[in-house]
Amino acid sequence: MDPRGFPTSLPEFQIVFPDDDACAKYLERMRWPDGFACPKCKQPGEPYRFPSRSSVVLRCRKCKVNTSLTAGTVMQSSHTPLSVWFWGAFLVTTQTPGQSALQFQRQLGLSRYETAFQILHKLRAGMVRPERDGIGGEFPVEVDECYVGGRTRGQGGGIHDNKAVVVGAVEVRLRKDAEHRAAKHKEAHSGGVPVKKLVYAGRLRLRVVPSRGTYDLNDFVLENVAKGSTIRTDGWAGYDQLPQMGYARDSAVCKGDPEKNETHLPMIHLVFSNLKAWVIGTHHGAIGHHHLQAYLNEYVFRFNRRFYPMTAFNSILGLAAHAPSATYEQLYSGEWKHPAGYVEKIDNLQSKSPHPSQTSAPSGVAEPRARENF
Fold this sequence. Notes:
The chain has 374 residues and is an alpha/beta fold. The chain contains 13 helices and eight strands.
């Protein structure tokens, strides 16, 4: 058991959370670490509890206002037992490939696919920390784009309109034993030690963008990379304004050359490769364009916590306890705007003119079945 009180294995999880009451007590501690305080009058102190109610409701002894334990969380207005929510959080954060809604439905014996779909999407809404800072700083950052999703069988080669543009940024950190690794692999590689042997990927950011144009790429960099960082890119003209924006750009024209990509942008291409394998393997490519950002948030959340996955369970409950909730209709229709996603800026709409590097926006991919600084 972790000293902070959360389970680090499946047997421990079953011991700590045997029923809904245990889950409710844990969620209450996550929402009010210093003890209950009335959201209306701010009065601290032990509230009055209603033992006969099926849901947990806390009543302030001063102003007599009732507060639901799940109000203001992703679990708000849900009739699903808390234990199912906790199992969902545990499975989706601690398993490397995550969980598809169909797998989740089968494992927990849910009668409806829509219930599993909604639970997982609401948990994904709590996977982005609102106050997270920009990546980079002392570490260089690799930035590139890729196309994700969309079956193109029978449509020939090239890029089609059922592909989504995803831009990514990842820190490149030097391993502590880099010198030892360099000496170890020097004899086996006469042309030099492979870069991947000496570095590893730090924090990651991903976003679905309308195009590979300058405006969309610059907005992503400004919101996700710390000013003054060194940014490694390919020769794409969409990144030409980075030096004027306060970044040091290290560019190389790769033109699809595998050796150049391996040398200049090894980490971001590895991230994209694993992302596409995850989309195809776990979700069979069946991710709607309007849901893709939510799945990217899940991938980033788990990637940034891959060295200590069990703490991710505690993190997601802490975030979900303060994240807004969406209805099933909002999620399924695409009306819900997923955190960390693209937002059209009004000033850009007024001043924007076509850029030579701007490409048309893709329409989407296949429809689905019905303080840490990460």
